[in-house]
Amino acid sequence: MPLPVPVLPEGVDPAWLPPAAFRAVGGRRTLIRGSGPLVETVHGEVAEACRRFGGRVVRDAEAEGGAHDLVLDLGADAPELLGEEGFTSAREGGTTTVTASGGRGLLYGLFHVVRLGEAAFTGEWARERHHPALALRMLDHWDNVAVHPVMGQVERGYAGGSLFWEDGRARGDLERVRAYARLLAACGINAVAVNNVNVHETEARLLTDRIGEVAAIADVLRPYGVRTHLSVSFAAPVVLGGLPTADPLDEAVRGWWAEATRAVYAAIPDFGGYVVKADSEGQPGPFAYGRSHADGANLLADALEPYGGTVHWRAFVYDHCQDWRDRRTDRARAAYDHFVPLDGAFAANAVLQVKHGPIDFQVREPVSPLIGAMPGTPLAVELQATQEYTGQQRHVCWLGPMWSEVLRFRHQPESSVGELARGGLIAVSNAGDDPFWTGHPLAQANLYTFGRLAWRPDAEPGEVLDEWIRLTFGPGPEAGLHAVLDGSWRTYEKYTAPLGVGFMVQPGHHYGPSVDGYEYSPWGTYHFADRDGIGVDRSVATGTGYAGQYAKPWAELYESPDTCPDELLLFFHHVSYGHTLHSGKTVIQHIYDTHFEGVAEVEEAREVWASLAGLVDPERHARVAERYEEQLRGAREWRDQINSYFLRKSGVPDELGRRIY
Ligand code: GCU
What we know:
Elements: H1 23-26, E1 29-33, H2 37-53, E2 56-59, E3 70-74, E4 87-92, E5 95-100, H3 103-116, E6 125-130, E7 137-140, E8 143-148, E9 152-154, E10 165-166, E11 169-170, H4 175-186, E12 191-193, H5 201-204, H6 211-221, E13 227-231, H7 236-239, H8 251-267, E14 273-276, H9 293-304, E15 310-314, H10 334-339, E16 350-355, E17 379-384, H11 400-408, E18 410-412, E19 415-416, H12 417-420, E20 425-428, H13 444-455, H14 461-473, H15 478-486, H16 488-495, E21 533-534, H17 552-559, H18 569-572, E22 575-576, H19 587-611, H20 618-650
Parallel strand pairs: 1-2, 1-3, 3-5, 7-12, 7-20, 12-13, 13-14, 14-15, 15-16, 16-17, 17-20
Antiparallel strand pairs: 4-5, 4-6, 8-9, 10-11, 18-19, 21-22
Helix pairs in contact: 2-3, 8-9, 13-14, 14-15, 15-19, 16-19, 19-20
The chain binds alpha-D-glucopyranuronic acid.
Protein name: Alpha-glucuronidase
Domain Glycosyl hydrolase family 67 catalytic: 128-437
Pfam families: Glyco_hydro_67C, Glyco_hydro_67M
């Protein structure tokens, strides 16, 4: 039986799967071959498209002799080694053929044809092979089941409540979750962790007595090829099992995890595995028992191993109770210092999940040196789609170019970050129960781009953006949309913290400027501005030594302010305001200029958006227009606080004599 396409609740935005995106497929004659649950999903999709656009779909058994425009073929004898997710596509003699050897491959093949639109049925081409570069393309939802008193339902969520949880339990109606799974499949995402990495009391129980709720969610994600993962508490044997210890080497603890995991798989046979934040920002971990992170990760890896599951062990481990007077401790160093000595000690199904930068998803950070320094450990790279430090989905900030820079970065010539991320690419989700999914309608582009870059880390981000625009908006507003999104990350960088310095945000919620908000705090995020200069000396010669964690070319390049790239200068060095950048400007003049430019660019983008009024659906247009007002207010606030702060500290006037307070 074909699986019916999910019905969007009234008023919910179709995002990148509006009915019109299926016009080309829906108007044609399609033959589907093969069997299995995902073939029914594919059939449901094509049947719905045909219902709308007048085409026809038949299954192998009923196929009459007639010609077909599209053949979707799940052949056991697929020609090449395509795996579960790959597919081929070819067009010959007026028929487009997609072949796959696994159900997910067939579904991805269908969405490939949808993306191509009319081009899928034009001309001829020889067989092309499509295959995801990374096997795991996952979203981490920082969703709480029970509303947390400080963090709310979704930690760092800017898109309303959770898609999965409401009022302390799994939603009864999961139709919207089905629609979400469909959107994820259409951009290649194949896994979701359904709860926050900070595992509070209620959420800890999802692992045991409340696994049925997780299983219900897994049931609706599965037909779109999305697997379910769970964040668990390292202290579970104590808090749930009543054991006196969670020591990873204790036999009773090992037995407890083995039994808990057996029960998880009984409820969810294709369960993906556990995500763990241990010994990080107050979460429990192996340190309490004098054990290493490898001991901790391997405990869970062993429990998951009989079922083919994976533990994603996060490397976000640092001292969050630092004394700001202590200039030797450097938070940027922490992940490398903790984990590099453990290289080779992790089980094959224990993946170390590393944030892309060494601090915490700032608008500009260098690529984490840890990623290039653990050849004997499966690594996953973690990005943040939720815009915690990049405008919180009130500002437009399309992160495609930043992520692409990260994924293409080469610690050493042999391999890029995209190639080193053998354990997958993961993003902290930016979606919630908001009618536009992501609060800011244009933030949908981040979710889509993440999926496509996880499929192909070396894809051109601009092409992915155009793909998203075409699918979501159809013909008409493409140029304007491209213009407001393409440079938005650099614009955001210009009016916020300069030259890689980071963290000049309001403490706690992290929205809006506060230059010294974290300067005398325990979090290890300082800029050290004084009357003479600014920046953190992370050189080996005179600073914290962080620059020395990189492989050769980068260690040398970052070591000296003469060779360090401008955009990271204050991340690596403390320099005077009069220091001349490679751009020829002084640091202080760069700060003034970029802050004025950033605001001007937001004003311009707002105008471009206004000009799209007749070309974009009115609800979307209104929501974005409203957010532009807030973005502009916010950008001016950033400009004026940053410029005034540095004028007052340095006493150096703006060369152009513009208004600074
Ligand atoms: C950031 C964020 C936290 C989150 C943490 C993490 O610090 O502000 O809310 O818990 O990252 O990645 O674990």
